Protein backbone atom coordinates (compact mmCIF):
# COMPACT_ATOMS: atom_id res chain seq x y z
CA UNK A 1 0.00 0.00 0.00
CA UNK A 2 1.11 3.56 -0.75
CA UNK A 3 2.96 5.17 2.18
CA UNK A 4 1.24 8.38 3.25
CA UNK A 5 3.21 11.60 3.74
CA UNK A 6 2.57 14.23 6.46
CA UNK A 7 0.62 16.42 4.06
CA UNK A 8 -1.59 13.60 2.76
CA UNK A 9 -5.19 13.33 3.97
CA UNK A 10 -8.17 11.27 2.94
CA UNK A 11 -11.44 13.04 3.70
CA UNK A 12 -14.49 10.80 3.65
CA UNK A 13 -17.86 12.49 3.33
CA UNK A 14 -20.58 10.31 4.71
CA UNK A 15 -24.16 10.63 5.98
CA UNK A 16 -27.59 10.04 4.45
CA UNK A 17 -28.31 10.39 0.72
CA UNK A 18 -29.54 13.87 -0.16
CA UNK A 19 -27.86 15.53 2.84
CA UNK A 20 -25.61 17.47 0.47
CA UNK A 21 -22.37 15.48 0.85
CA UNK A 22 -21.30 15.83 -2.79
CA UNK A 23 -22.30 19.49 -2.98
CA UNK A 24 -20.36 20.62 0.08
CA UNK A 25 -17.40 18.34 -0.69
CA UNK A 26 -17.06 19.78 -4.18
CA UNK A 27 -17.37 23.38 -3.00
CA UNK A 28 -14.83 23.00 -0.18
CA UNK A 29 -12.68 20.85 -2.44
CA UNK A 30 -12.38 23.62 -5.00
CA UNK A 31 -11.32 26.16 -2.38
CA UNK A 32 -8.84 23.84 -0.73
CA UNK A 33 -7.48 22.12 -3.83
CA UNK A 34 -8.74 18.67 -2.88
CA UNK A 35 -9.56 16.13 -5.59
CA UNK A 36 -12.24 13.45 -5.55
CA UNK A 37 -11.58 9.75 -5.97
CA UNK A 38 -14.47 8.36 -8.02
CA UNK A 39 -16.02 4.99 -7.15
CA UNK A 40 -16.90 2.20 -9.57
CA UNK A 41 -20.49 1.01 -9.69
CA UNK A 42 -22.63 -1.47 -11.57
CA UNK A 43 -25.73 0.70 -11.31
CA UNK A 44 -27.01 2.54 -14.36
CA UNK A 45 -26.24 6.25 -14.66
CA UNK A 46 -29.09 8.61 -13.79
CA UNK A 47 -30.15 11.36 -16.18
CA UNK A 48 -27.75 14.06 -14.96
CA UNK A 49 -24.81 11.72 -14.26
CA UNK A 50 -21.69 11.26 -16.38
CA UNK A 51 -19.22 8.41 -16.61
CA UNK A 52 -15.93 9.30 -14.95
CA UNK A 53 -17.43 12.30 -13.22
CA UNK A 54 -20.07 10.87 -10.87
CA UNK A 55 -18.94 7.25 -11.05
CA UNK A 56 -17.05 4.88 -13.28
CA UNK A 57 -20.09 3.00 -14.56
CA UNK A 58 -19.13 -0.59 -15.37
CA UNK A 59 -20.85 -3.90 -16.06
CA UNK A 60 -21.14 -6.59 -13.40
CA UNK A 61 -18.60 -8.67 -15.30
CA UNK A 62 -16.03 -5.88 -15.39
CA UNK A 63 -16.62 -5.16 -11.69
CA UNK A 64 -16.29 -8.84 -10.75
CA UNK A 65 -13.08 -9.19 -12.74
CA UNK A 66 -11.55 -6.18 -10.95
CA UNK A 67 -12.69 -7.63 -7.63
CA UNK A 68 -11.08 -10.96 -8.50
CA UNK A 69 -7.83 -9.10 -9.23
CA UNK A 70 -7.97 -7.51 -5.75
CA UNK A 71 -8.16 -4.03 -7.22
CA UNK A 72 -10.73 -2.71 -4.72
CA UNK A 73 -10.06 -1.40 -1.22
CA UNK A 74 -13.66 -2.16 -0.35
CA UNK A 75 -16.70 -3.45 -2.14
CA UNK A 76 -20.33 -3.10 -1.11
CA UNK A 77 -23.73 -3.99 -2.48
CA UNK A 78 -26.52 -1.47 -1.92
CA UNK A 79 -30.05 -2.11 -3.19
CA UNK A 80 -28.78 -4.67 -5.70
CA UNK A 81 -25.95 -2.50 -7.10
CA UNK A 82 -22.25 -2.96 -6.43
CA UNK A 83 -19.87 -0.13 -5.50
CA UNK A 84 -16.13 -0.06 -4.91
CA UNK A 85 -13.07 2.16 -4.61
CA UNK A 86 -9.86 1.12 -6.33
CA UNK A 87 -6.65 1.13 -4.29
CA UNK A 88 -4.65 2.29 -7.32
CA UNK A 89 -6.94 5.35 -7.78
CA UNK A 90 -6.50 6.36 -4.14
CA UNK A 91 -2.71 5.95 -4.29
CA UNK A 92 -2.32 7.86 -7.57
CA UNK A 93 -4.59 10.70 -6.49
CA UNK A 94 -2.87 11.09 -3.11
CA UNK A 95 0.58 11.04 -4.65
CA UNK A 96 -0.43 13.75 -7.13
CA UNK A 97 -2.70 15.97 -5.01
CA UNK A 98 -1.93 15.25 -1.33
CA UNK A 99 -5.48 15.83 -0.09
CA UNK A 100 -8.26 13.77 -1.59
CA UNK A 101 -11.89 13.07 -0.77
CA UNK A 102 -14.50 10.40 -1.32
CA UNK A 103 -18.27 10.29 -0.82
CA UNK A 104 -19.19 6.92 0.70
CA UNK A 105 -21.81 5.32 2.88
CA UNK A 106 -20.97 4.30 6.44
CA UNK A 107 -19.46 0.95 5.50
CA UNK A 108 -17.03 2.61 3.11
CA UNK A 109 -16.18 5.24 5.71
CA UNK A 110 -15.49 2.55 8.29
CA UNK A 111 -13.38 0.46 5.88
CA UNK A 112 -11.16 3.41 4.91
CA UNK A 113 -10.80 4.51 8.53
CA UNK A 114 -9.56 1.01 9.44
CA UNK A 115 -7.07 1.07 6.56
CA UNK A 116 -5.70 4.62 6.80
CA UNK A 117 -6.08 5.39 10.54
CA UNK A 118 -5.58 9.02 11.53
CA UNK A 119 -4.97 9.99 7.89
CA UNK A 120 -8.61 9.19 7.16
CA UNK A 121 -10.96 11.90 8.39
CA UNK A 122 -14.70 11.17 8.39
CA UNK A 123 -16.97 14.13 7.85
CA UNK A 124 -20.63 13.48 8.58
CA UNK A 125 -23.07 15.70 6.67
CA UNK A 126 -26.73 15.53 7.60
CA UNK A 127 -30.11 17.23 7.53
CA UNK A 128 -33.51 16.23 8.90
CA UNK A 129 -35.51 13.74 6.86
CA UNK A 130 -38.19 16.23 5.79
CA UNK A 131 -35.56 18.60 4.37
CA UNK A 132 -33.84 15.74 2.56
CA UNK A 133 -37.06 14.50 0.96
CA UNK A 134 -37.82 18.04 -0.22
CA UNK A 135 -34.35 18.32 -1.82
CA UNK A 136 -34.76 14.98 -3.54
CA UNK A 137 -38.19 15.99 -4.86
CA UNK A 138 -36.78 19.31 -6.04
CA UNK A 139 -34.00 17.64 -8.03
CA UNK A 140 -36.53 15.33 -9.68
CA UNK A 141 -35.84 11.98 -7.97
CA UNK A 142 -38.71 9.54 -8.51
CA UNK A 143 -40.89 8.53 -5.52
CA UNK A 144 -39.36 5.01 -5.77
CA UNK A 145 -35.83 6.38 -5.56
CA UNK A 146 -36.74 8.67 -2.66
CA UNK A 147 -38.32 5.71 -0.87
CA UNK A 148 -35.14 3.67 -1.41
CA UNK A 149 -32.91 6.48 -0.14
CA UNK A 150 -35.03 7.26 2.92
CA UNK A 151 -35.12 3.58 3.87
CA UNK A 152 -31.40 3.93 4.75
CA UNK A 153 -31.78 7.24 6.64
CA UNK A 154 -31.84 5.90 10.22
CA UNK A 155 -28.97 3.45 9.74
CA UNK A 156 -26.77 6.13 8.12
CA UNK A 157 -27.65 8.64 10.89
CA UNK A 158 -26.59 6.08 13.52
CA UNK A 159 -22.97 6.48 12.32
CA UNK A 160 -22.89 10.24 13.08
CA UNK A 161 -21.15 10.17 16.46
CA UNK A 162 -18.31 7.97 15.24
CA UNK A 163 -17.17 10.58 12.74
CA UNK A 164 -14.38 13.09 13.38
CA UNK A 165 -16.49 16.08 12.25
CA UNK A 166 -20.25 16.59 12.04
CA UNK A 167 -22.07 19.29 10.06
CA UNK A 168 -25.77 19.88 9.81
CA UNK A 169 -26.23 21.14 6.25
CA UNK A 170 -29.17 23.54 6.23
CA UNK A 171 -27.80 26.84 4.93
CA UNK A 172 -25.35 25.81 2.21
CA UNK A 173 -23.05 28.84 2.43
CA UNK A 174 -22.69 28.41 6.22
CA UNK A 175 -21.97 24.70 5.93
CA UNK A 176 -19.32 25.20 3.27
CA UNK A 177 -17.68 28.03 5.20
CA UNK A 178 -17.57 26.05 8.47
CA UNK A 179 -16.38 22.90 6.72
CA UNK A 180 -13.66 24.64 4.72
CA UNK A 181 -12.39 26.43 7.79
CA UNK A 182 -12.37 23.23 9.85
CA UNK A 183 -10.36 21.32 7.23
CA UNK A 184 -8.00 24.23 6.68
CA UNK A 185 -7.39 24.92 10.39
CA UNK A 186 -7.01 21.30 11.46
CA UNK A 187 -5.34 19.58 8.52
CA UNK A 188 -4.40 21.50 5.39
CA UNK A 189 -3.19 24.86 6.70
CA UNK A 190 -3.63 26.63 3.37
CA UNK A 191 -4.80 29.77 5.26
CA UNK A 192 -7.27 30.52 2.48
CA UNK A 193 -10.49 30.91 4.38
CA UNK A 194 -10.13 34.32 6.02
CA UNK A 195 -8.25 36.01 3.18
CA UNK A 196 -11.19 37.28 1.03
N1 LIG B 1 -27.81 23.36 2.09
C1 LIG B 1 -28.57 23.05 1.04
N2 LIG B 1 -29.73 23.70 0.82
C2 LIG B 1 -30.52 23.36 -0.22
N3 LIG B 1 -30.24 22.41 -1.13
C3 LIG B 1 -29.08 21.74 -0.95
C4 LIG B 1 -28.20 22.01 0.13
N4 LIG B 1 -27.13 21.19 0.02
C5 LIG B 1 -27.33 20.41 -1.08
N5 LIG B 1 -28.50 20.75 -1.66
C6 LIG B 1 -29.12 20.12 -2.83
O1 LIG B 1 -29.63 18.87 -2.37
C7 LIG B 1 -29.49 17.87 -3.36
C8 LIG B 1 -28.67 16.70 -2.80
O2 LIG B 1 -27.33 17.14 -2.64
P1 LIG B 1 -26.11 16.16 -2.93
O3 LIG B 1 -26.27 15.47 -4.22
O4 LIG B 1 -24.88 16.95 -2.68
O5 LIG B 1 -26.35 15.11 -1.75
P2 LIG B 1 -25.60 13.76 -1.38
O6 LIG B 1 -25.54 13.72 0.10
O7 LIG B 1 -24.34 13.65 -2.14
O8 LIG B 1 -26.66 12.64 -1.81
P3 LIG B 1 -26.87 11.82 -3.17
O9 LIG B 1 -25.82 10.76 -3.17
O10 LIG B 1 -28.25 11.31 -3.01
O11 LIG B 1 -26.75 12.82 -4.31
C9 LIG B 1 -28.85 18.54 -4.58
O12 LIG B 1 -29.86 18.92 -5.48
C10 LIG B 1 -28.16 19.77 -3.97
O13 LIG B 1 -28.07 20.83 -4.89
N1 LIG C 1 -19.17 2.02 0.73
C1 LIG C 1 -19.26 2.67 -0.44
N2 LIG C 1 -20.31 3.50 -0.62
C2 LIG C 1 -20.36 4.15 -1.80
C3 LIG C 1 -19.41 3.98 -2.81
N3 LIG C 1 -19.75 4.76 -3.85
C4 LIG C 1 -20.87 5.40 -3.49
N4 LIG C 1 -21.24 5.04 -2.26
C5 LIG C 1 -22.44 5.43 -1.48
O1 LIG C 1 -23.48 4.52 -1.81
C6 LIG C 1 -24.75 5.15 -1.59
C7 LIG C 1 -25.64 4.97 -2.82
O2 LIG C 1 -25.13 5.73 -3.89
P1 LIG C 1 -26.02 6.18 -5.16
O3 LIG C 1 -25.14 7.12 -5.94
O4 LIG C 1 -26.34 4.95 -5.91
O5 LIG C 1 -27.24 6.83 -4.61
C8 LIG C 1 -24.44 6.62 -1.30
O6 LIG C 1 -24.44 6.78 0.11
C9 LIG C 1 -23.03 6.77 -1.83
O7 LIG C 1 -22.32 7.82 -1.22
C10 LIG C 1 -18.33 3.09 -2.58
O8 LIG C 1 -17.42 2.88 -3.40
N5 LIG C 1 -18.30 2.47 -1.38
TrEMBL record:
Q: Which InterPro entries match?
A: GK/Ca_channel_bsu, Guanylate_kin-like_dom, Guanylate_kinase_CS, P-loop_NTPase
Q: Does the keyword tRNA-binding apply?
A: no
The chain's coiled-coil residues are: none
Signal listed as a keyword: no
Q: EC number(s) in its UniProt entry?
A: 2.7.4.8
Q: Name one Pfam family in it.
A: Guanylate_kin
SUPFAM superfamilies from the entry? P-loop containing nucleoside triphosphate hydrolases
In its UniProt record, a GO molecular function of this protein is:
GMP kinase activity
All copies of the Guanylate kinase-like domain together span 8-184
Q: Which reaction does it catalyse?
A: GMP + ATP = GDP + ADP
| Enzyme's top EC category | transferase
Q: Which keywords does this Swiss-Prot/TrEMBL entry list?
A: Kinase, Transferase
The family classification in the record reads: Belongs to the guanylate kinase family.
Briefly state the protein's biological role.
Essential for recycling GMP and indirectly, cGMP.
> Can you name this protein?
Guanylate kinase
Native organism is Paenibacillus konkukensis
Amino acid sequence: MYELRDKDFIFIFTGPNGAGRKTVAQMSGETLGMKQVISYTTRAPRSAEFNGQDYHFVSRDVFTEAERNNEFIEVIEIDGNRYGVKERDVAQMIEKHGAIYLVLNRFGAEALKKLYGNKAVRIFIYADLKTIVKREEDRGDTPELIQRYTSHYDEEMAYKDQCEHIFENLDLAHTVFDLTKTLDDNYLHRNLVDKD
